[in-house]
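note to self: dont lose this again. the chain is below, predicted strucutre after it. 159 aa total, dont forget to put it in the shared folder this time
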Amino acid sequence: MNCHTCGGEVCTRIRLRTYANGNKAQWHQCLICGAAAGRGALPKSEWVPNPEPWDEELREFGWRQRAAQYEQAREDERISRRRAYETHLQSEEWRAIRKKVIDRENGLCQGCREARGGQVHHLTYERLGNELLIDLVLLCESCHERAHHEPSGTFRRSA
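---
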């Protein structure tokens, strides 16, 4: 059996948890991650005499470890997506669709309709590598900067 929280082989101790309202319950605590193991608090008929107190430091340590692992996985995924994006931008397929977007707009920025567009900007990355023309807009440097730094990538008119 594995711990439902950390996935490790379950090695537990029955420990006494004391809640803020003074109520008490006995639980199996995973000795790897500090999480409560099993299906809940033990029924009183299964309580053991003189259990160790619940190890809150171990539980908090486990939470910090899992949070760090989660953040590392998110960072790894972000790096992987970025590499795929950069590889795509070097492809013949990207050059061809980029040219179609520039031709569609006659080289004019879709953000301000005043400057020459030089950046083909993704409105979505859902179809990265298989973009539809409606996924892309042609922008000048100024509008491209705004698209990346304004909320939701939306264009807002200056007051």
